[in-house]
Design goal:
One of its GO terms (biological process) is transmembrane transport. It is a multi-pass membrane protein. Its main location: membrane. Belongs to the binding-protein-dependent transport system permease family. This protein is mostly helical. It has 12 helices and 2 strands; from the N terminus they run E-E-H-H-H-H-H-H-H-H-H-H-H-H. The chain has helices at about 15-50, 65-70, 75-105, 110-125, 125-140, 145-170, 175-185, 190-215, 220-225, 235-240, 250-270, 275-285; strands at about 5, 10-15. Strands 1-2 form a two-stranded antiparallel sheet. Helix 6 (about 145-170) packs across helix 12 (about 275-285) and helix 10 (about 235-240) packs antiparallel against helix 11. The longest helix is centred in the N-terminal third of the chain and has 33 residues, at about 15-50. The chain is globular and about 75 Å long.
């Protein structure tokens, strides 16, 4: 027996260095969590603070920075563009990704593993590695700087993502249900409408919500392909932080809080429908 010692009372006890390793690991995890929570809390508090210099808390609290950010950064137009881009990306990704996932889950054909590898690449490879060539191509065909170009660029990683999310859901459905429906006279559309869609609804919902969250936070591809009238919320946040001019930090923090809240809201809902461990297992396969 390795990795454990038998005590006088008959219980097995982990070796000393194993316990030290577990304590150190959990200490690092909690240090990371507290660090992230501290940064998020400081941004949120500063977005409501009147002045905050050298004290634990601001001198006072106000909500005027949110109204200021709304007017200064034209947040109304930015949110409309963000909703258009995200809605189009989610809808097209589901329409293309679900049938592709069904074909990969149900059919065996030559080159299937190669196709799976090609689908995984846009999800695993850093976005910037293919973002610059993609943006160059879109500008050459006069789609760069347009809303259509932004949507096409965001579809490159999201369609494979939907395939990876949906494939495990489809594999879990018993094929005998489809066969039984066909024996009873159901056509392809009826099988899809009355058998597959109800069973796949949680998976489709999870995939759509995860794509929604990913599209809201997709910075590189949107930044490289967006024009002045097609910037989403995350690109506007970057532009507000690093463009020329003097701005109140509280306004930038208010914009950041709007972005964080919108992303976290949809992410929490998505996690109610999908198991991240299942997705990691699928990628490893």
């Amino acid at each position: 027996m390795t990795g454990a010692a038998l005590t006088r009372s008959g219980d097995f006890q982990a070796p000393f260095w194993n316990r030290v390793w577990h304590v150190t690991l959990w200490a690092l995890v909690w240090l990371f969590i507290l660090n992230v929570a501290g940064v998020v809390a400081s941004v949120a508090v500063d977005s409501f603070g009147t002045r905050w210099f050298g004290t634990w808390l601001p001198e006072g609290f106000t909500s005027k920075w949110y109204f200021s950010a709304w007017d200064e950064f034209q947040l109304n137009d930015v949110l409309i563009v963000t909703v258009k881009v995200v809605a189009a990306v989610v809808l097209i990704s589901v329409i293309l990704g679900v049938p592709a996932a069904y074909a990969l889950a149900r059919r065996e054909f030559a080159g299937k593993r190669t196709i799976l590898l090609l689908l995984v690449l846009p999800v695993l490879v850093p976005t910037i590695t293919y973002g610059v060539p993609l943006a160059t191509l879109l500008y050459r065909v006069n789609l760069g700087g347009t809303l259509t170009g932004v949507i096409i660029a965001n579809l490159v990683p999201t369609v494979p993502f939907v395939v990876l999310v949906m494939t495990p859901f489809i594999e879990q459905i018993d094929q005998r249900l489809e066969s039984a429906a066909r024996v009873c006279g159901a056509g392809t559309w009826s099988v899809f409408r009355y058998v597959l869609v109800p069973l796949l609804a949680p998976g489709i919902m999870a995939a759509a919500l995860l794509v929604l969250v990913r599209s809201i936070g997709m910075f590189e591809l949107t930044f490289l392909t967006a024009g002045p009238d097609s910037q989403t919320l995350v690109v506007s946040l970057y532009a507000a932080a690093f463009s020329a001019g003097i701005r109140a930090n509280q306004s930038l923090d208010a914009l950041a809080v709007v972005y964080m809240v919108s992303s976290l809201f949809w992410l929490i809902i998505a996690l109610r429908f999908v198991n991240p461990v299942q997705l990691v297992g699928r990628v490893r396969d």
